[in-house]
Amino acid sequence: MIPPTQLVSYIAPAAPATRRPARGNEPFLRPEIGFTPQWFRQSLDIEFGETWHTDPAIRAETITAMRAELRRRFAGSAIGGIDRSGDPPDLLTGTYGACSIAAIYGVPVLYARDNWPNCARQYLTDDQADRLESPDLDSNEHFQQLMRQVDWIVDHVGPIHGFINWQGVLNNAQRLRGQQLFLDMMDNPQRAQRIFRCVATTMRDAAKRLHQRQKASGVSVEFFTVSNCLVNMISPRDYETHLLPWDRFLAESFGCLGLHNCAWSATPYLDAYAQLAHLAYLDMGIDSDLERACTLFPRARRALMYTPMHLRDKSWSDVEADIRRIADLLGPCDLVIADIEANTPDDRIHRTLALCDEISRDSSQHA
After folding, report:
1. Is there a contact between 156 and 89 (Cβ–Cβ < 8 Å)?
2. pLDDT tens, residue by residue, 137-190
3. What confidence tens digit (pLDDT) does each residue in 196-205 have?
4. Strands, DSSP E only, in 98-221?
5. Among residues 86, 88, 101, 95, which one has the least CA distance to residue 246?
6. Which helix (H) or strand (E) holds 363?
7. Does residue 85 register a pLDDT over 60?
8. Residue 288 binned pLDDT confidence (cut-offs 50, 70, 90)
């Protein structure tokens, strides 16, 4: 299979945002809207604790209910992937939240009834970090538990649609080492590099194994997503020195890379990101230099992470001005509004969808 040339944002019901291959017919301004588990729990009797993440049969039942709720409240929209309603259900995306790599390394996962799981603050000592090795996935209980879920999906559904959120090298290393990691980068870069090497290798190997299992079921996944949520905690120079080689390692391993930055400004890191081959997706916050992003990444699908707080708290006229500016400076692009909580009125979402549709229609008429 040839890797996709572009990726787009994808938010499955009650799952953190991830990416999927573009279809090639995306609108000029494509909205991708997502809600927290608590948003669903306000209307549906769903427990998002450990059983939800370890039992795909439970997920199958609750995903059906969540999609029905999305159809009821946002009929005709593509929210939650319901534009793919003819496909077998995606029972993989959202599993273990963003904790899988840390869990493979033995970090306990903390589950919640109405939220995504989190990682315990159980950090490597200096000695443990200096002796760290990549776990053997064949004997790793967390990874094998995930593979048993995949087997269940094959047996009961067939094709294994969806994606595990493998996070990024810096994110995962921080989950293992805590804030000491940032001191390691200055005081003991060899130790930091050992941690980065281990987690990057595990990310690659775990994803490759899952992709092989998916391919055998009839689903081809030919890309990888890196989440650089913590990149703003280091300087652009430190990113280029310490992390860029590992992002390049993942880009070359998969031949297609999506790069996620949360809603932070990506401006200080754009020049370094431009050194990555096979970049098919890049998102950023509204304070980023959107025009420069267009210049540096003309082929990648660009995306703007608009915060749910802005959607909820700004006046509608300010929200509309923001969205029109995003379309003008960054389009064609995705407008990603993830992690929406229960206190956001549905009307705000309806108006956002209508505005994106209007902008896309106007763009096609003037193309």
Report:
1. no
2. 999 999 999 999 999 999 999 999 999 999 999 999 999 999 999 999 999 999
3. 999 999 999 9
4. 109-110, 118-119
5. 101
6. helix 346-365
7. no
8. very high
Q: Which residue has the tokens 């950090």?
A: 123
For residue 187, the surrounding DSSP H or E stretch is: helix 180-187
- List of long-range contacts for 177-181, beta carbons under 8 Å, 24+ apart: 177/123, 177/124, 177/129, 178/121, 178/123, 180/123
Confirm whether pTM is higher than 0.90: yes
Closest alpha carbon to 346 in 10, 15, 17, 35: 35
Nearest to 343 by CA among 318, 308, 306: 308
What's the rounded Cα separation, in Å, for the pair 190 and 197? Answer: 10
The neighbour count for residue 122, using CB atoms within 10 Å, is 13
Residue 78, both tokens: 């593509």
pLDDT at position 2 over 80: no
What is the CA angle 277-278-284, rounded to 5?
A: 90
- Own/partner pairs, 237-246, CB within 8 angstroms, 24+ separation: 238/185, 239/269, 239/272, 240/272, 242/185, 242/189, 242/192, 242/193, 242/196, 243/169, 243/170, 243/196, 244/272, 244/275, 244/276, 246/169, 246/196, 246/197, 246/200
